[in-house]
Amino acid sequence: DAKTTQPPSMDCAEGRAANLPCNHSTISGNEYVYWYRQIHSQGPQYIIHGLKNNETNEMASLIITEDRKSSTLILPHATLRDTAVYYCIVRPANNAGGTSYGKLTFGQGTILTVHP
Amino acid sequence: KAGVTQTPRYLIKTRGQQVTLSCSPISGHRSVSWYQQTPGQGLQFLFEYFSETQRNKGNFPGRFSGRQFSNSRSEMNVSTLELGDSALYLCASSSGGYTDTQYFGPGTRLTVL
Question: Does A104 touch chain B (CB under 8 A)?
Answer without folding.
Answer: yes
